[in-house]
Amino acid sequence: MANIAFIGLGNMGGPMAANLVRAGHKVVAFDLAGAARNQAQADGAGIADSSVAAVKGNDVVITMLPAGKHVLSVWNEILPAMTKGALIIDCSTIDVESAVQAHGLAAKHNIASVDAPVSGGTGGAKGATLTFMAGGEAKAFAAAKPVLENMGKKIVHCGGAGAGQAAKICNNMILGISMIAVSEAFTLAEKLGLSHQALFDVASTSSGQCWSLTTYCPVPGPVPTSPANNEYKPGFASALMVKDLTLAQDAAKAAGAATPLGKHAQEIYKAFDAAGHGGVDFSGIIQHVRDLAGK
Ligand code: NAD
Prior knowledge:
Blueprint: E1 3-7, H1 13-22, E2 26-30, H2 34-42, E3 46-47, H3 51-55, E4 60-63, H4 68-78, E5 87-90, H5 96-108, E6 112-115, E7 118-119, H6 121-127, E8 130-135, H7 138-148, E9 152-159, H8 163-192, H9 196-203, H10 211-214, H11 238-255, H12 260-277, H13 285-292
Parallel strand pairs: 1-2, 1-4, 2-3, 4-5, 5-6, 8-9
Antiparallel strand pairs: 7-8
This protein binds nicotinamide-adenine-dinucleotide (NAD).
């Protein structure tokens, strides 16, 4: 069992740290928010009074923070205090450029590093069923994998520094676009007098089949577990979809890739968010698509 420091105990990091405790690791945790620290303590983690204090003497450090600027600032603080030969893993969703910079900082301090963003949301974090998309050297990935296995069910090594973040934003760009496509199809079906169930029965077994339809169907009924059956409670909030589509657009611009549908999906989700629906599950975009008809 490892000695692990966990920094960033929010909606995702809190339950992930609790799963590491459950798996038998000795976890020392830190978050700026007192309520998050109290919850981690109740879950069985030791609490440090700063990020630097948390990492001292530990073999593995995990960060789960909002954005690239938080990760770079925390890594800058903690790397000099980490044990030589230790491993640092960032599970936040951040821009590829900051992820590559973070790996560079770790290398300067002779610390092995992995970017390992996740898919699976808060349910996956609680149930230890997350998918981890990892980037970094093979040796660092091999050391990270057994730790990540306590928090997830699928761990994929995507390539070198930043490859985990690249995989995450490419996947979520598909997701954002495909949810709008499925929502447009149901909206058109409604206007044509075709029932939700009829469209679902055909498209779910035809070439229109995709995850946004068969697992996360944006209309209530055909998939009883989808958020559409629960007033579009997240799930995966639309504000986070805006974040990921924006990261994808930034990366596309920097890399010179053409992603016209990704750009349009970003604009559609931004408008939904700006109308006050950032906290609604991203499949709630179907309501916005329906409303576009009147405009
Ligand atoms: P959150 O806002 O609930 O948690 C972030 C935590 O980081 C907060 O508790 C905050 O106090 C803490 N924090 C911020 N700066 C800090 C610092 N300098 N030192 C210590 N703690 C600090 O966010 P979340 O939903 O847990 O998401 C975390 C990351 O995971 C994000 O990058 C997000 O994009 C990604 N993600 C979230 C989901 C989801 O469904 N919530 C799914 C996949 C990926």
